[in-house]
Design goal:
The structure holds two protein chains of two kinds. Chain A is mainly β. In chain A, 0% of the residues lie in helices and 49% in strands. In chain A, a hairpin with a 5-residue loop joins β4 and β5. Chain B is mainly beta. Chain B is built from no helices and twelve strands. In chain B, strands 2, 5, 6, 10, 11 and 12 form a six-stranded mixed β-sheet that branches. Chain B has a four-stranded antiparallel β-sheet with strand order 3-9-8-7, with no helix packed on it. In chain B, strands 1-4 form a two-stranded antiparallel sheet. The mean pLDDT of chain B is 91. The chains are: A mainly beta, B mainly beta. At the A-B interface, β5 of A face β6 and β11 of B.
Chain lengths: 114, 114
């Protein structure tokens, strides 16, 4: 079955540590996105990628980095510069950039600070 | 810029009660409108959508009508079930304006009690 796989489901970060969240899709989608969800808040866009080897900052990119070396994969690194990383992180993909009507989401990663 | 405002929760209803979750939007272009549902610990799933004024989206007994004159997209269901307990997000996508993302409301948590 096609879909988006995020791992791990739960992740803990120590002070000053970088951590990487995995996102893999087998939908053959060109575009991929990372959103951050805080309790009682909507989703906020961190980064998005329209095509391999290309990505753009979203609304809250500071303290995060991404790469898009393969079409299927869009990992997100939460760096030590992100001072408030505790949140639920959602990866999404769409067939082509701007086709927001066909946005598919993964099941999310809950990141917590030790 | 684009924005979405939806009623704050939590909303608690008895089984078989009528549900309305209000959603209003501000957009510069001609957006598509969406309702997403998130079950505990999971990602978002598209519930329904409408792409132009006066369109009605429907799925699983839920309905919402795109009202341009009132800039609204209220979610309704005639008889809720315990299994409808989830967080509901209203969102807009403005692909025509060159935007490559969805703008989400803050979400409304619904709890349905037997």
């Amino acid at each position: 079955d096609g879909g988006i796989t995020q791992s791990p489901k739960y992740l803990f970060r120590k002070e000053g540590q970088n951590v990487t969240l995995s996102c893999e899709q087998n939908l053959n989608h060109d575009a991929m996105y990372w959103y951050r969800q805080d309790p009682g808040q909507g989703l906020r866009l961190i980064y998005y990628s329209q095509i391999v080897n290309d990505f753009q900052k979203g609304d809250i990119a500071e303290g995060y980095s991404v790469s898009r070396e393969k079409k299927e994969s869009f990992p997100l690194t939460v760096t030590s510069a992100q001072k408030n990383p505790t949140a639920f992180y959602l990866c999404a993909s769409s067939p082509r950039p701007g086709v927001v009507e066909k946005l598919f989401f993964g099941s999310g990663t809950q990141l917590s600070v030790l | 810029g684009n924005s979405v405002t939806q009623m704050e929760g939590p909303v608690t209803l008895s089984e078989e009660a009528f549900l309305t979750i209000n959603c209003t939007y501000t957009a510069t272009g001609y957006p598509s409108l969406f309702w997403y549902v998130q079950y505990p610990g999971e990602g978002l799933q598209l519930l329904l959508k409408a792409t132009k004024a006066d369109d009605k989206g429907s799925n699983k007994g839920f309905e919402a009508t795109y009202r341009k004159e009132t800039t609204s997209f209220h979610l309704e269901k005639g008889s809720v079930q315990v299994s409808d307990s989830a967080v509901y997000f209203c969102a807009l996508g403005d692909s025509g304006a060159g935007s490559y993302q969805l703008t989400f409301g803050k979400g409304t948590k619904l709890s349905v009690i037997p």
